[in-house]
Amino acid sequence: MDMEMELDAARHGFAKMGFGCKFFDDDVDKEQYHCKDCGICRVGGKDNFFHCHKCGSCYSVTLRDKHVCIEDSMKNNCPICYEYLFDSLREASVLRCGHTMHLQCFHEMLKHDKFTCPMCSVSIFDMEKFLRALDAEIEAKFLHMGKGWIVCNHCWDTTRVYPGMTGQRKCCHCQSYNTCRVAPSVLPA
Question: Which of 14, 64, 100, 107 makes an SS bond possible with 9, Cβ 3.0 to 4.6 Å?
Fold first, then answer.
């Protein structure tokens, strides 16, 4: 069977014939296509996606050269609903850190005011404007939390905080407030 016949068969629900796939759907409006690198048929139109060889999956062309690669990142379960992402028919989202989840789960997370990756705690948005406003608020209220250490969940740097220092929870390296207090005994040597 030539490639055009195989593609036509895949578009009409006979993907198993030519590609060994088990994806059956004759709704051609879904623009089914076969990704030879993934080894499965996908929906959404071949021209709208590219295969990232490092991540091991197909992503929207809007992410080409604009995402952090994590090897086989889609070959994991969604951290919210635990459904396997690689062959899921639900749309996936790639976070700034490179971790992946279903787009619907991402939106649910936002509804619950969760703005960090559930896998690594890195901020999921550019927080610069928010951080400037928070700096101003902290300056006005003068936070006093005492002597101690914090670790940044964004850049993983540790910072010593002193009494009287404003912005006690602010990372001195990347300026993020996505930090948590740690005891000196858990700091890397």
Answer: 14
